[in-house]
Amino acid sequence: MLTIKNLHASVEDKPILKGLDLEVKAGEVHAIMGPNGSGKSTLSYVLAGKDDYEVTEGSVTLEGEDLLALEPDERAAKGLFLAFQYPLEIPGVATMTFLKTALNAQLRARGEAELPTPAFMKLVREKADSLGISTEMLKRGLNVGFSGGEKKRNEILQMALLEPKLCVLDETDSGLDIDALKVVSEGVNALRAKNRGFIVITHYQRLLDHITPDVVHVMAQGRIVRTGGPELAHELEAQGYAAYVADAAA
Ligand code: ADP
Ligand code: MG
Ligand code: MG
Questions:
Q1: What is the pLDDT of residues 94-106, one digit of tens each?
Q2: Phi, psi of 232, deg, nearest 5
Q3: Which of 14, 109, 180, 215 fits a disulfide with 149 by CB distance 3.0 to 4.6 angstroms?
Q4: Which residues form the ABC transporter domain (predicted)?
Q5: Given ligand 1 and candidates 12, 13, 36, 42, which is best to mutate, with the most ligand atoms within 8 Å of its CB?
Q6: What is the 3-state secondary structure (H, E, C) of 201-231?
């Protein structure tokens, strides 16, 4: 589904990603772990197509299509979903309105008809119910005064509505509280599907106590330096990242 080959990327002319290879197949959940500053968030920004992140070498394809040639909104329309650590707060926009705008933008980009409001409301309620999410917060301004758990609920609901092919969650260093941690892990588990892939970026092993990944990668100095099964996360928790920092610098 997602194939990243020899990816090099710079921020302000400083090389951050230095030859990253990664392959995520449909139905798989991959965890990327690694020391602070290894480039995990940079990878998610490059996939999102954020300004100022310049790809200098390598390729990224989603279902065989060159992702890097697409604008950020086109990437979303092709089924890429990114969740970042600090979601946007928009006081004047009700969360419900935001979700509707996001879904309709995606439908338009795919050349499909927008959903009329009643059909949209019905769909949101169904998705929210299936995830055990209350629709009460949807009346409030987007993320305004939301707890960590509510922000994550909103994010998971957005994911459920947009039905992405590949979800990238950058939860690094976010200090998710227990509530938010549960929301993210239950949401990911509920949305796991054979035609959908996940990349869960996390500094800490504890998120992976609730989401059992198929594959765990260690990232250091801008590359994937080790790949293993779920047991690798436990090994990292026990031993820390010191070995990888030293190895990658050598
Ligand atoms: P991680 O998410 O693994 O902690 P990051 O991708 O946030 O790593 O950062 C990797 C490196 O890139 C760090 O050395 C960081 O200082 C640098 N970096 C990230 N974003 C920027 C930026 N906008 N401008 C300059 N340097 C940056
Ligand atoms: Mg960091
Ligand atoms: Mg980060």
A1: 888 889 988 998 8
A2: -65, -35
A3: 180
A4: 2-246
A5: 42
A6: ECCCHHHHHCCCCCEEEEEECCEEEEEECCH
CA of 1 to the centre of ligand 3 (A): 24
Q: Is the CB of 172 under 6 A from ligand 1?
A: yes
What residue type is assigned to position 82 of the chain? Answer: L
By the 8 A CB rule, do 34 and 220 touch? yes
Is 223 touching ligand 1 by the criterion CB < 6 Å? no
pLDDT of amino acid 91: 78
The model's pTM: 0.92
CB of 36 within 6 A of ligand 1: the answer is: yes
CATH 3.40.50.300 corresponds to the domain 2-90+164-249: yes
Rounded to an integer, what distance in angstroms lies between the CA atom of residue 217 and that of residue 201? 10
Ligand nearest to the CA of 170: 3
Q: Round to whole Å and give the CA distance between 134 and 119.
A: 18
For a mutational test of ligand 1's pocket, the pick from 10, 12, 13, 14, i.e. the residue with the most ligand atoms closer than 8 A to its C-beta, is 14
Phi and psi, residue 246, nearest 5°: -65, -50
What is the position in ligand 1's atom list of the atom closest to the CA of 52?
Answer: 23
Q: Is 42 in the pocket of ligand 1 (CB under 6 A)?
A: yes
Q: Can you read off the two tokens belonging to residue 191? A: 């949305």
In tens, the pLDDT along 141-174 reads 887 888 888 888 888 999 999 999 999 999 865 6
Contact 236, 242 (CB under 8 A): no
14 beta partners? 11
- β-pair partners for 211: none
